[in-house]
Design brief:
Blueprint (H helix, E strand, L loop, with lengths): L8 H22 L1 H11 L19 H18 L5 E4 L6 H17 L2 H15 L2 E21 L1 H7 L5 E12 L5 E23 L4 E3 L11 E9 H6 L4 H4 L9 H8 L14 E11 L8 E8 L4 E7 L5 E4 L13 H27 L2 E4 L6 H5 L12 H4 E4 L5 H19 L3 H4 L11 H41 L4 E5 L2 E5 L9 E4 L8 H17 L1
Length: 538
């Protein structure tokens, strides 16, 4: 077997391109179709059911109703705790650091719009299998341009102090002082570039995300990443060469075709090359670039539909956290809530349409009449109390009445309502939707029904907490220790408190506290009262 050697740029390009292409083909072939179908079901469409002409087109929106019912319950479970995620100290010396790390990570998470990001991730997990959060350190540059006139040499030296200062334009002129002494004055335009870092949390659209077929988690993968459309101007601001990135295109189109469609003529005054769209891909792979025989994790920045590698660097970890309500063992993608009740929505829709059509048919029966003996226009008039001219109504007009199917359709619909309740954990008893839902039941029986319904939602919440939520705070912890300098401050209890991540133990783990397994409110109160009585007897 040949010994490993250092990879050339051509080798890296080939390896990365093949891996990304294969991963995207897997997602588009195995997952994307199910996601698109779930989105259509959530919007109230039933692709599998045809609709005959002049029949009911109503849809039983079981999927959308279930998602809208489960989502606020999950949000309440996560938000009712002051510290949904907490760092666990490894020893007595880590207690203060763990408390400070917990407070600061939660502070930065909230500052990044944590509620909206969690809400969106939960929604994607309920509808499209996975919700994806990306936690990363964003270094950006801001440029300020100032103009100065009639500056002395000392003033020029003062304004040019500091890093990132650059003179764009400058002129000098000789002036005379009041006593006649000549002096040189300067006019100049100066740019000041300031680099700032910020901890950010973004929601990645599921359709932008990709992973290889053999992956099982964010710790076990060959390639993982996401793609998005950027403008050429954005890539130039990131430090890439304009001539290089402007020749690249949007994924899914041939480069030449995209060039012809977007920039038909270089002389077209309405075309701005800096605003051309380019597919930017951020991928993470373990590759043995150095030829040591040990693959290391790298971050690759690629552009265009051919995934041209623009830059790569070593990475500590992948920035993604995957939220799933029903994970599949030994697989990366689990099941969404819509995957679980898709068939039930189709059946409920079919029953509902049949019920409505049956009522219409029963209320508007077909009529036979003796031709030439009945006024047809009067027969077609649906006005209440309208008169119909007929020679002998007993023999000239005959209605073909149909039985009302509601009596048979309603029990079937109620049965499938129960099936959906069982699968989703959203029941009339548990959600308080029906004032009669708990009638004629004992307290024990009612509590058993409520707890049985809630167990499904509690399981979803636990999967979200131990999966994506815990990983989000693990990634945040690494980013804070690496990038936040001592002297940073956070607002805590109405005061600004200094933060020093350098003293935090890097081995601290994350524990989620999302209010699960604590029982009903009445049970907690009873337990506290019993504990108080026991203390009084001691």
């Amino acid at each position: 077997m040949a010994k490993p050697t250092r990879k050339s740029d051509e080798d890296i390009q080939s390896i990365v391109k093949d891996a990304i292409t294969s991963a995207k083909n897997f997602v588009q072939g195995e997952v994307e179709e199910e996601r698109l179908r779930a989105m259509r079901l959530f919007k109230g469409e039933v692709p599998e059911l045809g609709t005959p002409k002049d029949r009911s087109k109503v849809v039983a929106t079981k999927c959308r109703d279930a998602v809208r019912s489960v989502k606020p319950v999950l949000m309440r479970v996560f938000l009712q705790s002051e510290k949904p995620a907490e760092y666990i100290p490894r020893g007595p010396d880590d207690v203060a650091g763990a408390e400070q790390a917990t407070d600061y990570a939660q502070f930065k998470f909230d500052q990044s719009g944590g509620f909206q990001k969690i809400r969106d991730a939960f929604h994607d997990a309920l509808v499209q299998k996975t919700g994806i959060l990306k936690c990363y350190w964003d270094e950006s540059e801001s440029v300020d341009i100032d103009e100065y006139s009639n500056l002395t040499e000392d003033q020029v030296a003062m304004y040019l102090q500091g890093e990132g200062v650059k003179v764009l334009e400058g002129t000098q002129k000789e002036m005379a002082m009041p006593d006649g002494t000549p002096i040189m004055l300067y006019d100049m335009k100066v740019s000041r570039t300031k680099t700032t870092g910020e901890l950010r949390v973004d929601t990645v659209p599921p359709e932008h995300f990709f992973v290889d077929e053999g992956a099982t988690s964010c710790d076990d993968f060959y390639v993982i990443g996401h793609s998005e459309e950027k403008r050429v101007s954005d890539l130039v601001e990131m430090g890439f060469d304009f001539d290089e990135v402007s020749m690249l295109g949007v994924e899914g189109e041939e480069e030449a075709q995209h060039e012809r469609q977007t920039f038909a003529s270089e002389d077209d005054e309405g075309t701005d090359p800096a605003m051309k769209k380019v597919t930017l891909t951020e991928a993470y792979m373990r590759v043995d670039i150095e030829g040591t025989g040990v693959a290391r994790l790298y971050k690759f920045i690629c552009a265009g539909h051919q995934h041209k590698v623009l830059d790569h660097e070593l990475a500590d970890d992948v920035p993604f956290a995957i939220y799933e309500i029903d994970p599949e063992p030994h697989a990366f993608f689990g099941r969404s809530l819509i995957d679980l009740i898709e068939e039930d929505q189709n059946i409920a829709t079919s029953l509902l349409r049949g019920l409505i059509d049956g009522v219409h048919i029963a209320n508007n029966p077909k009529t036979a009449y003796r031709e030439g003996q009945v006024d047809v226009e009067a027969l077609l008039n649906n006005e209440y109390g309208a008169l119909i001219a007929a020679t002998d109504p007993q023999t000239d007009i005959l209605e073909f009445s149909s039985p009302n199917s509601a009596a048979t359709a309603l029990p079937a619909m109620q049965y499938y309502d129960g099936v959906v309740d069982m699968k989703t954990g959203v029941s009339q008893a548990g959600m308080g939707m029906d004032s009669d839902a708990l009638q004629a039941q004992t307290v024990v029986g009612a509590n058993a029904m409520v707890q049985a319904a809630q167990s499904q939602i509690e399981m979803m919440a636990r999967n979200l907490a131990e999966g994506g939520y815990a990983r989000s705070f693990k990634v945040l912890f690494k980013l804070i220790r690496k990038h936040v300098p001592p002297g940073e401050h956070m607002r805590l209890g109405g005061q600004f408190v200094p933060v020093d991540p350098t003293g935090w133990n890097a081995e601290m783990d994350v524990q989620t506290n999302v209010g699960l397994g604590t029982g009903q409110k009445a049970e907690r109160i009873a337990a506290l009262q019993q504990h108080q009585m026991w203390q009084q007897t001691v």
